[in-house]
Amino acid sequence: MTKVSQFNMPRLYHFTLDPYGRRLRLALAEYGIDVQAVDEKPWAPSAQLLQLSPTGLSPVYVEDSGTAVVSPEAISEYLEETVGERHPLIPGNALARAEVRRLVNWFDVKFYTEVTEPILTEKVISRFVTNRGSSGSPNMARVRAARQMLGSHLDYISALSEERSFLAGNDLSNADLAAAAHISAIDYLGDVPWAEHPVAQMWYMRIKSRPSFKVLLGDTIPGVPASSHYSNLDF
Amino acid sequence: MTKVSQFNMPRLYHFTLDPYGRRLRLALAEYGIDVQAVDEKPWAPSAQLLQLSPTGLSPVYVEDSGTAVVSPEAISEYLEETVGERHPLIPGNALARAEVRRLVNWFDVKFYTEVTEPILTEKVISRFVTNRGSSGSPNMARVRAARQMLGSHLDYISALSEERSFLAGNDLSNADLAAAAHISAIDYLGDVPWAEHPVAQMWYMRIKSRPSFKVLLGDTIPGVPASSHYSNLDF
After folding, report:
1. Does B82 contact A at CB distance below 8 Å?
2. Residue A49 belongs to a domain with what CATH number?
3. Dihedral of CA B64/B65/B67/B73: which sign?
4. What is the ipTM score, two decimals?
5. Which of A98, A161, B6, B116 is deepest in the core (most CB within 10 A)?
6. Which segments of chain B does DSSP mark as H helices, in order?
7. Is A98–B55 a contact, with Cβ atoms under 8 angstroms apart?
8. What predicted TM-score, i.e. pTM, was given to this entire model?
9. Is B48 within a domain?
10. Which of B71, B78, B105 faces A94 most closely, judged by CB atoms?
11. What is the pLDDT of residues A10-22, one digit of tens each?
């Protein structure tokens, strides 16, 4: 664990629309942990982030003591072990916890690869990063393919929420927060076809109405305005 | 959790060279759990695997009772919670456990993307899968770029093993098993430049000499012979 100078409260280094940072912001709010969020840009990590994490990737969580925890799953499990006793986000017995982690993996790997990454890269990151050989303008074919995949993921959410109170079982868990973190990033950009997926929309309205969700509703990215319904609880 | 018919012993559905399946085979052997390994091919998942896991991705772990656990991290944490008490593979306090998980993520995401995936795809999977528009022959430029990245990962392993007994601390952990799982898949194909990385080689010899490692040393893939030193403990 890398140590940096001490702070008055824990810090979370994150990029506004990064789904992993978004899930942790939701989780910290659910646990009732006040945190100072430090904005990072994945295309230009700060010197302090690079000191904390050799990959330069956020999210990184730094405790008051200056101790840093790096990588989404490590932070998520660390918080559950240290502050999750009263309101666990990986609740239940070992099998129930495995179901939470299966779904977190589903959203963090499958949904991310098929939906979040292409849409974020093409609609946001390509504005700020011009690779050699790329025009800098979004590849709309990738965005359309990702929107198509999003439809089947919303169907999966509908199916899960028809048979369970929350995505992984009877209780709110990291599975709901992971799904909502990815979807809210896409929703910021206005790419979620809610009208075609009313059951998934009902689930999302319930998560979005939680007090913890307020930490995401004020998000803004310079030059990339939020969709008109992004912060609307009755969308 | 999907249930299938009951077995006499737990089963692990896996693809021989898949690093996630390899880490779990090592972990099960370290925990002392006998398991029936069921071969899967990522390009042609069996009907039973598809029934257990909607993504068709291995590894999937199925208990004697027929209960299935899906996705690498979910299986890994499930085993630690249910059979890991005596010989934990995520040992220590919450911070030590976070360091194990940070390194597992390093190998399972960064090493996988930069090294394992390109080398496995180009040298093995491309032999069996012919995509439209691809010639079916390996893209050696991708393999060379991956071999170059492998060098810096071996330097990182050397740096860690010079300051600690094992990669994440004083004890064997999932960090060592994850690193060894990825490296052993590459080593099967003969792509590890051991002579240039003697400190990393010393660490790997120690892991490879563990009784648990025997489960990997007999691996064979039809049409893809193992490198001459793959199963040699004194390579």
Report:
1. yes
2. 3.40.30.10
3. negative
4. 0.92
5. A98
6. 19-31, 47-52, 72-83, 94-105, 117-120, 126-128, 140-163, 174-188, 198-208, 214-217
7. no
8. 0.93
9. no
10. B78
11. 999 999 999 999 9
